[in-house]
Amino acid sequence: MDTSVIIVCAGNSTRMGGINKILLPLGNSKVIGITMKAFEGCPSVKEIIIVARKQDIPEIQSEAEHLGISKLSVCTEGGSTRQQSVINGIRCICSDTSLIAIHDGARPLVKPDHIEKAFKDARIFGGATLGVPVKDTIKIVDDGLITDTPQRSSLYITQTPQVFKRRLYFEGIDFALEHELDFTDDCQLVEAIGAKVYMTHGDYTNIKITTPEDIKLAETMLSV
What we know:
By secondary structure, the chain is α/β, with parallel strands linked by helices. The protein is about 35% helix and about 25% strand. It has a single domain, classed as Spore Coat Polysaccharide Biosynthesis Protein SpsA, Chain A, CATH 3.90.550. Strand 2 and strand 3 form a beta hairpin.
């Protein structure tokens, strides 16, 4: 066990009408409960750190206790941006952690075997993220007009977890803070210092719940 997992769920859920999506029921649990269970079942995971809104922490802790999540080490309050929330989580990791994995709390359907694949690739390449090839043709548009059509074979939908060697991720954080940069994607953090991140093939079922329709879709996938 060499990996600290930071599950980020400190957003305002504006597209859910203010309802916190991670606390919505999903199957026999809540969204955050199923997310925690995916990482609880991974042999490489040393600890789970939850970053959430202060008012949500008691319910998250209650859900973890109900599900018997033994690897949850701490719940801490999020910051004003995603990057700041992740940094709050980073401050709580064990001193002997080798890998840091950052995951969206609203991606409950991630599969443990895919998580472990991303861990394995990060150990080799320094950083890895789950992702899947885009299915549609993508157009670049400027002022309503198509300006370019990127080669579809090189385009991927980036998911989480995004996993990095501890030293590499810390270098990325230092660079971002020094240059007052704020990224919404953790891969960007290490790309900014010239590091390459491996794209680990994941699954299209690893959706991010952002709208009420996504909950219905997740319920269907969970029942299959």
